[in-house]
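Hey, quick one: can you model this chain's 3D structure?
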Amino acid sequence: MWGVTPGATGSNQRKWESMELGATVLFAGDGRIFARGQVAARFRNRALVRLLWDIDPRGDTWEFMH
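Sure thing. Here's the predicted structure for all 66 residues.
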């Protein structure tokens, strides 16, 4: 399970909305890819994410889950 914030201009949300079930996703950070997965489900749940990870410094949550 992974989540993304909406993004400053909603860019992350738009990318999340275009994800198709079965698509391969790559997880990257610090200039490298560290994991690969396959989209099995997509859902948005702000309340669950607040329980799991709270909020970021900008007040966003990682509510766009896959």
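One thing worth noting: The two ends are 6 Å apart (CA to CA).
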